[in-house]
C-alpha cells in the first residue's frame, strides 16, 4: 500500500529526506559543466525512484502553481523523468499536462525533429531540470522550445547548486527561475 504524502508540504519534506538519504554522494567529482565539486547530487536516483518520483511531480507542480503552462519538458536526460513525474501528478489531480523532450541535437532520420512529444508550437511551456549548476542545459532547452514556436514561462529545477545559474537564466532567457531546494536545505552549504 502506497502511503506517500499527497499534500505538497509533506511531499516536500519526505522528498528532502529521500534526497539526503539516496542522492547526495560525497567525494571529488567532475560535473557536466566541467567544474569540480566535493559532492554530487545524483537526482536520477530520485527522479527514477518508485517512492520519490511521484513526490517530485507533486513538489514541482506546487513550486510552479502560480504559472500557467500547457506542457513541461527540457533537455534530455535530466529533465525527462521530472517532466514525466509532473505529467502523472497532474493526471492524478484530474488535470492534463503534456510533456516534451528536447534532444541534444536534431535527429538525422525520421521527422528530424529536436523536440519529441506533443507539439508545443503556440503553447505555454515550463522548462525543467533535476539539478542546475551553470544553467546551460535549461538555456539550451529554452532556445529549442522558442525555435519550435513555444512561449517559455519559466525554468524550474529540483536542486539549485547556487553557482549563478538562476541569474544566468533570468538574464539570458528573460524568464523566472525557480528551485525547490537550496544547498542549505540539502545540507551542502
From TrEMBL:
HAMAP family, A to Z: PyrE (MF_01208)
Keywords, comma-separated and alphabetical: Glycosyltransferase, Magnesium, Pyrimidine biosynthesis, Transferase
Catalytic activity: orotidine 5'-phosphate + diphosphate = orotate + 5-phospho-alpha-D-ribose 1-diphosphate
Subunit-level organization: Homodimer.
Cofactor(s) it depends on: Mg(2+)
Residues that coordinate or bind 5-phospho-alpha-D-ribose 1-diphosphate: 103-104, 107, 109, 129-137
Enzyme Commission designation: 2.4.2.10
Organism: Arsenicicoccus bolidensis
One GO MF term: orotate phosphoribosyltransferase activity
PANTHER family on file: OROTATE PHOSPHORIBOSYLTRANSFERASE (PTHR19278), URIDINE 5'-MONOPHOSPHATE SYNTHASE (PTHR19278:SF9)
Encoding gene, per UniProt annotation: pyrE
Family: Belongs to the purine/pyrimidine phosphoribosyltransferase family. PyrE subfamily.
Protein name, as recorded: Orotate phosphoribosyltransferase
Domain Phosphoribosyltransferase: 94-168
Pathway membership: Pyrimidine metabolism; UMP biosynthesis via de novo pathway; UMP from orotate: step 1/2
Function: Catalyzes the transfer of a ribosyl phosphate group from 5-phosphoribose 1-diphosphate to orotate, leading to the formation of orotidine monophosphate (OMP).
Residues that coordinate or bind orotate: 133, 161
Amino acid at each position: 500500500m502506497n502511503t506517500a504524502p499527497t499534500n505538497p508540504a509533506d511531499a516536500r519534506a519526505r522528498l528532502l529526506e529521500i534526497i539526503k538519504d539516496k542522492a547526495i554522494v560525497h567525494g571529488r567529482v567532475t560535473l557536466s559543466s566541467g567544474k569540480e565539486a566535493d559532492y554530487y547530487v545524483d537526482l536520477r536516483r530520485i527522479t527514477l525512484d518508485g517512492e520519490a518520483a511521484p513526490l517530485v511531480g507533486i513538489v514541482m507542480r506546487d513550486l510552479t502553481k502560480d504559472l500557467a503552462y500547457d506542457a513541461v519538458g527540457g533537455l534530455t536526460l535530466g529533465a525527462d523523468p521530472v517532466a514525466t513525474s509532473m505529467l502523472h501528478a497532474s493526471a492524478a489531480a484530474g488535470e492534463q499536462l503534456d510533456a516534451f523532450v528536447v534532444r541534444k541535437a536534431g535527429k538525422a532520420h525520421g521527422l528530424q525533429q529536436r523536440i519529441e512529444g506533443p507539439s508545443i508550437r503556440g503553447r505555454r511551456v515550463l522548462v525543467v531540470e533535476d539539478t542546475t549548476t551553470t544553467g546551460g542545459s535549461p538555456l539550451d532547452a529554452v532556445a529549442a522550445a522558442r525555435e519550435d514556436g513555444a512561449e517559455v514561462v519559466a525554468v524550474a529545477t529540483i536542486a539549485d547548486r547556487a553557482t549563478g545559474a538562476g541569474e544566468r537564466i533570468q538574464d539570458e532567457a528573460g524568464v523566472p527561475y525557480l528551485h525547490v531546494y537550496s544547498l542549505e536545505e540539502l545540507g551542502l552549504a
